[in-house]
Design brief:
With 65 residues, this protein is mainly alpha-helical. It has one domain. It has 4 helices and 2 strands. It has a two-stranded antiparallel ribbon. α1 crosses α4. The radius of gyration is 11 Å and the shape is globular.
């Protein structure tokens, strides 16, 4: 059984608090979370699906806040 990444639960709690009505986030949402002004920087760091969305669970795994 694989272990969840350190900080995952804290990250998912923060995302659920910031975006209670969304299951998937846009590039603009992720840019706001990461504190970057250029959305193109988000594309360098975060993997999105074909619809240019990322689920909160997947984002919590990818970020290391």
């Amino acid at each position: 059984m694989s272990r969840e990444k350190e900080g995952y639960r804290d990250n998912i709690a923060m995302l659920n608090e910031r975006f209670p009505d969304k299951d998937a986030l846009t590039r603009a949402d992720v840019a706001a979370v990461l504190g970057v002004t250029m959305r193109s920087r988000v594309l360098d760091r975060i993997k999105f699906n074909r619809l240019r969305l990322v689920t909160k669970a997947d984002l919590a795994r990818q970020i290391g806040l």
